[in-house]
Amino acid sequence: MDSRTILAELPRLRRYARAMLGDRAAADDLVQDTLERAWSRFAQWRPGSDLRAWLFGIMHNLRVDQLRRGALSTLSLDEEADDVPTRATQTDRLEMMDIEAALRQLPDEQREVLLLVALEEMSYAEVAAALGIPAGTVMSRLARGRERLRVIMAGRQSSPNLRVVR
Amino acid sequence: MNPLKMTEDDLQAYVDDALTAARRGEVEAWLAGHPEDAERVAAYRAQKLALKALFDPVLEEPLPDHWSALTVQPLNATVEGKKWPKFKFPVLQRLAAGVLVATLGGIGGWLAHDRYPGGQTMARLVPLPQQAAVAHVVYSPDARRPVEVTADQEEALVKWLSKRLGTPVKPPKLGGLGYELVGGRLLPGNSGPVAQFMYQDASGQRMTLYVTTENAGKPETGFRFAREGEINVFYWVEGKFGYALSAGIAKGELAKVATAVYDQLDGK
């Protein structure tokens, strides 16, 4: 674990945190906290193992811990729901805003798996290792998350073809 | 049209290009005959593209200057690592000491109630989440004897608790969420026995499921949330059962487990 290899992981950690939290400042704070904790757990790092998966795993656990601390004040189950992220204009802005808003409506556990697969292009086994969950759970969360996202998006377009979720 | 068996996992793996070429061909052939699923798969692929388009620009943003310092091992790295358990445990102990008093009061009240049946209930009826949280805080820090019957005798545990509660109860399986059954015990509730199942994850974090049958006749409730000191509790009433899941973990995380518990018990 040296500076250069860690540095190389930062943009990805940052992208994932941004997608997970929506809020830029909160996401950057999470990346920073992840690195700090990684160093404090340095003894647990097994040289030769997957650094990326390890860091994503730390970020996941940290987020769980932060939500715990945050729970001191009242917060709803989907506490990011009210976050309105600001973002540079995209070509297809409406659709972008749409998928981002829809993403916020997924439960954490589904959003997490979906993003690790979609953005990080992790294999299912890597996702399972990073989150410390069985491969079967990865698959079911992925399937549920994707379907939920699809239904939300379909609902927004008020498509007459809206199907009932299986 | 195609006799091949197709699973949801195959379709997901197809979306992620995680199939062998041969299998991909089979999935494609299958999708040709299943337009609804083909449409669904196309939507999932579109999601992936949209998510990448939305968040990939983050990769290009310049990193904050002060982050470079974070890529170097800090001098106090090992000291940092030791801070954790040190600060965590006394808090729990203090809390446990505090609620132990509350529990003893509760047990005393229950005994008194038993001794003077029919009279005015002397013990204040303790609400379900509070009972559960107190039981959690009292027993979960116990390193040597957190449960009366351990998980390796699960069958005996189930038999015993079912008999004492007068109705079948069994612990849900939460291994998929990282929580393994440690065991269970019998506890006094407001008017009779209740069961407590204890779980633990790989880091030693404990979680307890409190099951009472004292809620017969009470209206069913959806998920409710309560917070007792450091302990978060999700509780609900279903049929004659009252359930409360307690742990000193984030509400969101606990909600996930509570949902899983609910689903499993619901499936019974």
Structure description:
- The complex is a heterodimer of chains A (166) and B (268).
- Chain A is mainly α.
- Chain A folds into two domains: 1-69, Rna Polymerase Sigma Factor, Chain: A, CATH 1.10.1740.10; 89-156, Arc Repressor Mutant, subunit A.
- Chain A has seven helices and no strands.
- Chain A has helices spanning 3-21, 24-40, 51-70, 93-104, 108-118, 124-131, 135-156.
- In chain A, helix 2 packs across helix 3 and helix 4 packs across helix 7.
- Chain A is globular, with a radius of gyration of 17 Å.
- Chain A starts with a helix and ends in a 10-residue tail after the last helix.
- Mean pLDDT of chain A is 78; it is low at 71-93 and 158-164.
- Chain B has 268 residues and is an alpha+beta fold.
- Chain B has three domains: 8-59, no CATH class; 64-103, no CATH class; 127-265, 2-Layer Sandwich (Phosphorylase Kinase, domain 1), CATH 3.30.200.
- Chain B has eight helices and seven strands; from the N terminus they run ααααααβαββββββα.
- Chain B has helices spanning 8-15, 21-32, 35-55, 57-60, 77-115, 128-139, 154-165, 251-266; strands at residues 149-150, 180-188, 193-200, 206-212, 224-228, 231-238, 241-247.
- Chain B has a seven-stranded antiparallel β-sheet, with helices on both faces.
- In chain B, a hairpin with a 2-residue loop joins strand 6 (231-238) and strand 7 (241-247).
- In chain B, helix 1 crosses helix 3 and helix 5 (77-115) crosses helix 6 (128-139).
- Chain B is extended, with a radius of gyration of 25 Å.
- The two termini of chain B are 37 Å apart.
- The relative contact order of chain B is 0.09.
Q: What name is given to the CATH topology of the largest domain in chain A?
A: Rna Polymerase Sigma Factor, Chain: A
The overall pLDDT of chain A, averaged over residues, is 78
Count of beta strands of chain A = 0
Name the structural class of chain A. mainly alpha
Helix run count of chain B: 8
CATH class of the largest domain in chain A: Mainly Alpha
Query: What is the CATH-assigned architecture of the largest domain in chain A?
Result: Orthogonal Bundle
- Approximate strand percentage of chain A: under 5%
Largest interface: A-B, 67 and 55 residues
CATH fold-type name of the largest domain in chain B: Phosphorylase Kinase, domain 1
Amino- and carboxy-terminal Cα gap of chain A: 45 Å
Based on Cα principal axes, name the global outline of chain A.
Answer: globular
Question: What's the pLDDT, averaged over the residues of chain B?
Answer: 78
Tally the structural domains of chain B: 3
CATH class membership of the largest domain in chain B: Alpha Beta
